[in-house]
Batch of 2 targets.
Target 1
Amino acid sequence: MDGHTPGETVDMNSVAVVCRRAWNAVDPRDRTEMKSPAQTVIVHHTALRFLISGDGVVYEGRGWGIVGAHAKEHNFHSVGIAFMGNFNDELPSSESLSALLRLLHIGVLHGHVRPNFVLVGHRDVAKTACPGEHLYSLLPKLREQLQNH
Ligand SMILES: [Zn+2]
């Protein structure tokens, strides 16, 4: 169960990613490579390492393996993934939630994220409302879904 309609086959190994160049992302000021796979995945609702749009398309931010600038003191061992929108007001789409699960599956598969990574919301590690009430309240369910894969 990952947000898709029952019976629909979901290819966990594929997710639509738009690379930085394709969406004309401005180059980050520094590009530090991570020394080991990320142990934490921090969910946001602002523009960071990866952005997930409401239609489930992933926009590459820094990309895998590159230290981001999304959560002070956690950047060196975590990946930041942001959902486009303000989830204090709106609910994240099932497409975007499914894209997150597939992205994480791929991240683990390719060794960018530790298999036993911890999924947290930005507010778990900093004083912020990010990633919004509605998205944050879905994290336990997402953790459960990740365990079943
Ligand atoms: Zn955040």
Note: Residues 39-147 form a domain with the Lysozyme-like fold (CATH 3.40.80.10).
Target 2
Amino acid sequence: MRNQGELTIQGWGPAPDGAQELSKAARRYLVRELGWTPRETPPVPLDEIRLKPSRLEPDVVARLTDLLGEENLSTEREARLKHAGGKSYLDLLRHRAGDASEAPDAVAAPGSTDETAALLALCGDLGVVVVPFGGGTSVVGGLTGSDPFDRPCITVDLRRMATITNVDVPSSLVTVGPGMRGPELEDSLGRQGLTLGHLPQSWEFATLGGYAATRSAGQASTGVGRFDDLVEGLTLATPSGVLELGHPPASAAGPDLLGLALGSEGTLGVITELTLRVRPKPRASVYEGWSFRSWAAGLAALQHLARHDLLADVVRLSDADETRANLLMASGTGARALRGTLRARGHGEGCLLVLGWEGLPTIVSARARAAASVLRDCGAIRLGSRVGESWRKHRFAAPYLRDTLMDRGLMVETLETAATWSALPTVYDAVRDELRQSLTRDGRRPLVMCHVSHGYATGASLYLTVVADRDDDLPMQQWLTAKRAATDALLAAGGTLTHHHAVGADHRPWLDREIGPLGVEVLRAVKQRLDPHGICNPGVLLPE
Ligand SMILES: Cc1cc2nc3c(=O)[nH]c(=O)nc-3n(C[C@H](O)[C@H](O)[C@H](O)COP(=O)(O)OP(=O)(O)OC[C@H]3O[C@@H](n4cnc5c(N)ncnc54)[C@H](O)[C@@H]3O)c2cc1C
């Protein structure tokens, strides 16, 4: 799947290959599982979305236009709507109901680091809030922070800074603008036999600057590393000046300030350039499926692989609920045959594992062989490449399906965390119990599915998907209550507030539980130095 179009304000679709269709098998399964009454709940037409008039005074527009040029500043309805919020369930609920109250007053598109730095300094003087905008795929309210002083706000769209400025093949480094999307970068690198290999599910639309600002993780991050691991250097334009951070290949010159920019979510300024570590394009890839009798057996096997440094590049272990849902919602003879095989071998309520290896053919086959022997010792059954390749083919499809489910009266949202191998089972139980409890109403239960999405030597991340019959009267409250309970529970059990979605506006009330009140004060002090007027994405990351 490859979508090079624009995201719509009300969802992800339309899918390039019709992937958003809900199969009859899936519909039957969801009705049975959730007690769901399928119904039409379409979004309001785009022209009925409510948008407040821009609050930018004409003299402010004139100053900004003088700096950027008329074509690079827009107060038009269409531009403002396109930059309203991100793509969380709550964002989509609001936009589908016709509410775009968080839309910026204008959209600016600077073309260079110097222009961005000048724009930030000017906005500081004018008292205008600035929200950097990459692909607009934030799922944690990273683009919907509220300013305590209610000042006018502009979005800084990075689309004009989307070119590759240097490829240093001997050093495996590429220098690139923050507005570039993954597919464009991979196309260009591929022509030189290189790849970045960062593939989050939002890959079609998210940008490189957004990945750095949120500390993203991709589907192959177990192997190639998280996005933070791939950033060797970056330029951060702030209201107080420009910082050049990072020094490849390594440096011991004091604390690494690069880490301050990674995950800063637009609160310190705008990332205007990135130097990323790339690698040779893989010559071989093997994706395969395995099955375990239970979640505990699957976790134990991953732990063994991790201990022996044998985790694959892609590691996804689904729990029994996610496995059952995937198998029952898939139509076709292949899925039926697989269900039959698993039942016959006593894995009818088992857990599927997808592993993917990429690289040089000899290394790939040696790694896959070594892992297979550990997995067999742990009681796993090898299901072969069909299961792995099927996952690979459909790996960007789920967001399109979410639109369809929201059109039919369902709530669909995800949340994620990570914990050490010892804490992982407790975190898993705690978060699932809370989600189930808070989303059960009138005897109808939600579907709570979970998979391990990334493995580390010391632990793993958990990614949960929740589907429930929507409360049509109070849909926001329905999810907010569940999310609050689940977040409290996962923190109490030893999980992290977020493994890769970032903090945004949604998680900021809990940040002090993750880094402590002193940690929050340190971040505030840094922000005060770089952004003295507090114009950079206020209402995000730092607690009130
Ligand atoms: C369907 C779906 C699937 C997803 N799957 C994944 C996944 O697999 N892995 C994952 O890690 N995340 C995933 N996400 C979350 C999201 O895609 C990531 O957080 C991504 O890194 C955001 O990139 P973006 O360019 O869209 O940033 P935006 O959404 O535009 O911005 C995100 C935040 O970063 C700030 N920002 C953006 N660009 C800059 C910049 N140049 N300088 C400073 N600040 C900036 C913004 O102000 C905002 O606070 C998913 C989201 C969706 C909707």
Note: The chain has a mean pLDDT of 95.
